[in-house]
Q: What sequence folds into this?
């Protein structure tokens, strides 16, 4: 008998298209259909840690902001724990760690509010600098793009981060660092994502 | 046996970023190579959803936006199947979200200006959780084809957009489900962003007469496969490097 491998193949990805909002954020598309839309509150009301705002744009190869993009964020809590059964530790009641955001249709600016995540200890015991994983889909993007947002005020942790250090071109690491400013007492991190061209953001094949 | 890292995504099976016949991809595709990453805890975890997040009616597009006593116009279909991983293991309790045009090819979205009319009884989005066997089912109308500005005479085949979470951020997937026998499938630049014809075939839902409800609703079957993962058979490199 000839031995065969009987693995299945992953379903191929397709672009989310221009109307992704009607499925994943229908309120923003102009109609209310669900009693609750998912992804509006990443950290929940009980989360400890520093409340922050993240804002930015996704910019195409022509330098234009992409107004029909959709982003999802995935992060640990302030203690560096993910709200997932495989990560040992507790998160605050109501902390989901996941959010979904779309930009203003006119300007392309998006923003989300959360708490700053703590450093995460990987399952092999190595420590990663605080970061938020981002997943980006839109018309024209055939497979969702994965990147990470790191924080400009975590210089020493970033310098030791095992993922940032996989990027051979040190100049490109800077594309993953969100710049901190203060706006009316709230820390704001600015994170523009450039899909193509000069200062193209680093994307990961995870 | 502990579950380990996810299998490498097969980038020769998946569409590449730059597929010039699909014009929008030209300015929205990165030019540099992606950085490959052994999955860390940030990727093997992902959001968990439960029955408190959604309502049972969310999976019934025939009624979740219809006025009482009315229903949308179009071919009534059940779209159902299983969510599996590459090891053919069911993925239970995972969130599946869909969106689609109405039977005339018009989306209920303020940016859609196609002259086919809105259906007052059809919203076009739904969501559900897979059961303990990875099974999901929606009720909806079969969407119509619609024109789009790519080449001047491009028409999308009838399709339903599907978003699936799996149990890890590494499994996150958005795709489109097409319908068996549609002659527009072979003509579509978005479909043809996928290089392998067998991979395209995996996106075509099959007419499923066994699941059809006689005198009521036709059924199509569409199974979804998410990335699988290794089992940790050996404690490799326990010193942590």
A:
């Amino acid at each position: 008998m000839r031995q065969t491998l009987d693995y299945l193949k992953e379903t191929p990805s397709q672009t989310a298209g221009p109307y992704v909002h009607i499925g994943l954020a229908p309120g923003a598309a102009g109609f209310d259909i669900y009693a609750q839309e998912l992804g509006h509150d990443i950290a929940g009301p009980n989360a400890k840690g520093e409340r922050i705002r993240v804002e930015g744009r996704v910019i195409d190869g022509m330098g234009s902001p992409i107004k029909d993009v959709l982003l999802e964020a995935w992060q640990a809590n302030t203690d560096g724990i993910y709200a997932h059964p495989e990560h040992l530790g507790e998160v605050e009641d109501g902390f989901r760690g996941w959010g979904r955001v779309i930009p203003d249709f006119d300007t392309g600016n998006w923003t989300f509010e959360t708490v700053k995540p703590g450093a995460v200890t990987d399952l092999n015991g190595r420590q990663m600098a605080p970061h938020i994983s981002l997943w980006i889909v839109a018309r024209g993007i055939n497979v969702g793009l994965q990147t990470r947002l790191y924080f400009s005020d975590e210089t020493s942790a970033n310098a030791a981060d095992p993922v940032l250090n996989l990027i051979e071109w040190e100049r490109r690491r800077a594309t993953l660092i969100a710049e901190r400013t203060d706006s009316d007492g709230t820390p704001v991190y600015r994170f523009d994502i450039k899909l193509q061209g000069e200062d193209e953001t680093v994307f990961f094949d995870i | 046996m502990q579950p380990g890292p996810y299998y490498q995504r097969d980038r020769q099976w998946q569409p590449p970023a730059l597929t010039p016949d699909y014009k929008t991809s030209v300015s929205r595709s990165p030019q540099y190579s992606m950085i490959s990453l052994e999955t860390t805890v940030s990727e093997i975890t992902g959001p968990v959803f439960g029955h408190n997040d959604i309502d049972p009616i969310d999976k019934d597009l025939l009624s979740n936006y219809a006025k009482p006593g009315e229903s949308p116009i179009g071919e009534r279909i059940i779209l159902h199947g299983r969510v599996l991983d590459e090891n053919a293991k069911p993925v239970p309790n995972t969130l599946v979200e869909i969106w689609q045009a109405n039977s005339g090819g018009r989306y209920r979205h303020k940016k859609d200006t196609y002259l086919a009319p809105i259906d007052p009884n059809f919203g076009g989005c739904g969501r559900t959780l897979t059961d303990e066997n990875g099974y999901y089912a929606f009720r909806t109308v079969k969407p119509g084809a619609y024109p789009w500005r790519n080449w001047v005479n491009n028409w999308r085949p009838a399709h339903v957009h599907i978003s699936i979470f799996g149990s890890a951020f590494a499994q996150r997937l958005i795709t489109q489900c097409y319908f068996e026998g549609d002659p527009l499938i072979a003509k579509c630049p978005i479909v043809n962003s996928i290089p392998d014809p067998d991979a395209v075939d995996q996106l075509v839902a099959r007419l499923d007469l066994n699941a059809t409800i006689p005198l009521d609703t036709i059924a199509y079957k569409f199974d979804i496969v998410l990335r699988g993962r290794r089992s940790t058979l050996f404690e490799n490199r326990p010193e942590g490097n």
Chain A touches chain B through 83 residues (CB under 8 Å). Chain A has a mean pLDDT of 95.
